[in-house]
Design a protein that fits this description.
Layout lengths: L1 H17 L4 H9 L34 E3 L17 E2 L1 E3 L15 E6 L18 E2 L5 E4 L2 E6 L4 E7 L4 E6 L6 E6 L7 E10 L2 E10 L3 E10 L14
Antiparallel strand pairs: 1-3, 2-5, 4-10, 6-7, 7-8, 8-9, 11-12, 12-13
């Protein structure tokens, strides 16, 4: 390792010694840099056993905001698998390409109509809050993810900064529009304790869990909504 650093240092000295520094030339070359993020395809590795995720994240970002389709199969270590036909919701922590499950903390799911407190069956989505979706209505690019939830006709868009995840939900006209927050949900772990409080259009709390790749962790969060709630409730033990 020391030899590698030494060689790089010497190479830098040689380049500096032979090249005349021209500020204008440097600025022009910088402005001409191409945006290679357009070639990124986050769907690569989401099928078979790649264990990757298609959601929004940045290099060294604190969260990985993505859709979850299953929680406890090896294929779904990242929370998502291309072969699945329905989505559980959108959580904020994931591991990509590890081959071991973990994360899946703080899951949000927008719905319309009667509130359902259970996720439901992966195929028979009418029994829970999960929704069917189609890949033709799904888009993943560098730092951005969107999908149409077929059961509710809700368009979901996700993006992220290094510390914050942004959700955008476009609801159809409906008598009742909901956002489910499932703190029990996680990938390969079990919650030890949960806390939540509501203040105006802000929800805050934490999820402490053990198991999975994380072994043991506590995730604290604050979520601010663009609209105030008409009503809200908390389900305890079903």
């Amino acid at each position: 390792m020391r030899t590698k650093y030494f060689m790089v240092f010497i190479l830098a000295i040689i380049i500096v010694g032979l090249t005349r520094y021209d500020k204008n030339s440097f600025d022009n070359s910088t402005n001409q840099l191409n945006d290679y993020t357009q070639y990124v395809d986050p769907m690569i590795g989401t099928d078979w056993n790649g264990h990757t995720l298609p959601g929004a994240t940045l290099p060294n970002g604190m969260l990985q905001l993505s859709s979850d389709t299953k929680t406890s199969t090896w294929n779904n270590c990242s929370g998502y698998h291309y072969s699945d036909k329905s989505i559980l919701g959108f959580s904020h922590t994931h591991y990509s390409g590890t081959g071991a499950g973990g994360g899946g903390d703080i899951l949000f799911m927008p719905t319309v109509g009667k509130i359902k407190l259970n996720a439901g069956d992966i195929d028979n989505t009418v029994d829970g809050y999960r929704s069917k979706y189609s890949h033709k209505n799904e888009l993943a690019s560098s730092g951005y993810y969107s999908v149409l939830l077929d059961d509710y006709n809700i368009q979901v868009s996700l993006t992220a900064t290094k510390r914050v995840g942004f959700h955008k939900y476009i609801f159809p006209k409906s008598e009742q529009a909901n956002v489910i927050l499932d703190l029990v949900h996680g990938l390969y772990d079990n919650p030890d304790s949960l806390f939540i409080q509501v203040n105006g259009n802000e929800i805050s709390g934490y999820r402490a869990a053990s198991g999975g790749l994380d072994k043991s962790n506590t995730i604290y969060f604050t979520a601010e909504f663009s609209k105030h709630f008409k009503s809200y409730g908390i389900a305890i033990n079903g």
